[in-house]
């Protein structure tokens, strides 16, 4: 996806008449800089599950890690379709972003090493991971790493001009 920028489409039904579509680089920068994301998955019995987590935007995808026995990992084993959200909890300003896609396991040790470096650069040395057997390893625990390449992203602009932008990816 290097260099690819999806087309930004403003939904006039949910936007101020004076609003314009949010440019993709603004949403991408928010995804890159966010400290916390909310992951929505579906339990095997169909009930929703939402949890906050940390992650890294790299190479056109959002990445997160989880223990193999955690609820989110067990949900993904049955249904890899997810929604990730981030933004701020105010109405008067900012942008909220919703990423829809499929969580795919990252197993390549070379890629995982690059992601581990990105994790530590973003969150500090307490989030240092070694890479072992296709997973992150730290303190005797193992974490599976997933990437979500966006299929559709929504941006909800707040403040003086409310807006809803949609970006579609192939």
Folded structure, characterized:
The chain is α+β, with helices and mostly antiparallel strands. The protein has one domain (8-168): Pnp Oxidase, Chain A (Roll), CATH 2.30.110.10. Helix content is 19%, strand content 42%. The chain is built from 3 helices and 11 strands; from the N terminus they run βαββββαββαββββ. The chain has helices at residues 24-33, 71-78, 109-123, and strands at residues 8-10, 37-42, 48-53, 56-58, 61-66, 81-86, 95-106, 130-132, 135-138, 141-157, 163-168. Strands 1, 2, 3, 4, 5, 6, 7, 8, 9, 10 and 11 form an 11-stranded antiparallel β-sheet that branches. It starts with 7 loop residues before the first strand and ends with a strand. It comes from Streptomyces pulveraceus. This is Pyridoxamine 5'-phosphate oxidase family protein. Residues 27-149 form the Pyridoxamine 5'-phosphate oxidase N-terminal domain.
Which helices and strands occur, and which strands form pairs?
Elements lengths: L7 E3 L13 H10 L3 E6 L5 E6 L2 E3 L2 E6 L4 H8 L2 E6 L8 E12 L2 H15 L6 E3 L2 E4 L2 E17 L5 E6 L2
Antiparallel strand pairs: 1-11, 2-3, 2-6, 4-5, 5-10, 6-7, 7-10, 8-9, 9-10, 10-11
What is this entry, summarized?
The protein has 170 residues and is an alpha+beta fold.
How would you describe this structure in keywords?
170 residues; alpha+beta; Pnp Oxidase, Chain A; 11-stranded antiparallel beta sheet; 3 helices; 11 strands; globular; Pyridoxamine 5'-phosphate oxidase family protein; Split_barrel_FMN-bd; Pyridox_Oxase_N; oxidoreductase
């Amino acid at each position: 996806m290097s260099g690819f920028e999806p087309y930004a489409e403003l939904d006039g039904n949910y936007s101020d008449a004076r609003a314009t579509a949010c440019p993709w680089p603004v949403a991408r920068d928010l995804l890159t800089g966010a400290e916390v994301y909310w992951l929505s998955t579906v339990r095997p019995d169909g009930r929703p599950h939402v949890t906050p987590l940390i992650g890294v935007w790299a190479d056109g995808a959002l990445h997160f890690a989880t223990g193999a026995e955690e609820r989110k990992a067990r949900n993904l084993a049955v249904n890899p379709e997810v929604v990730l959200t981030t933004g701020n909890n105010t109405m008067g300003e900012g942008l909220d972003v919703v990423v829809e896609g499929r969580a795919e396991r990252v197993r390549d040790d070379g890629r995982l090493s690059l992601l581990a470096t990105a994790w530590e650069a973003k969150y500090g040395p307490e989030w240092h991971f070694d890479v072992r057997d296709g997973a992150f390893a730290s303190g005797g625990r193992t974490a599976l790493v997933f990437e979500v390449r966006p299929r559709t992203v929504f941006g909800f602009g707040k403040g003086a001009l409310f807006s809803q932008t949609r970006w579609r990816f192939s």
